[in-house]
Amino acid sequence: MDTAPLYRQLASHYLHAIEAGTLNAGERMPSIRVLMARHQVSLSTALQMCRHLESRGVLEARPRSGYFIRKPAKSTLTPAREPQCTTPDPAQFVGVHARVSDILTRGQAAQVHTNFSGAVGAPELYPYEALRNAAIRGLRNHPDLFGRAVPLHGDATFRSVLARRALDARINIGADEIIITQGCVEALNLALRAIAQPGDVIAVESPTFYGLLQILESLGLRALEIPTSPQTGISLEALDLAAQTYPNIKGVVVVPNLQNPLGSIMPDSHKQKLVQWCEAQQIALIEDDTYSALGNSDVPLSAIKAWDHSGNVIYCASLHKILAPGMRLGWISAGRWQARVEMLKYAQSRPNEALPQIAAADYMASSAYERHLRRLRARLREQREQMADAIASYFPAGSCLTVPDGGLALWVEMPAQRSSDAVFDAALQAGIRIAPGLMFSNLNRFDHFLRISCGQPFTRELDQAIRTLASIVERA
Amino acid sequence: MDTAPLYRQLASHYLHAIEAGTLNAGERMPSIRVLMARHQVSLSTALQMCRHLESRGVLEARPRSGYFIRKPAKSTLTPAREPQCTTPDPAQFVGVHARVSDILTRGQAAQVHTNFSGAVGAPELYPYEALRNAAIRGLRNHPDLFGRAVPLHGDATFRSVLARRALDARINIGADEIIITQGCVEALNLALRAIAQPGDVIAVESPTFYGLLQILESLGLRALEIPTSPQTGISLEALDLAAQTYPNIKGVVVVPNLQNPLGSIMPDSHKQKLVQWCEAQQIALIEDDTYSALGNSDVPLSAIKAWDHSGNVIYCASLHKILAPGMRLGWISAGRWQARVEMLKYAQSRPNEALPQIAAADYMASSAYERHLRRLRARLREQREQMADAIASYFPAGSCLTVPDGGLALWVEMPAQRSSDAVFDAALQAGIRIAPGLMFSNLNRFDHFLRISCGQPFTRELDQAIRTLASIVERA
Question: Has the keyword GTP-binding been applied to this entry (chains A, B) (predicted)?
Answer without folding.
Answer: no
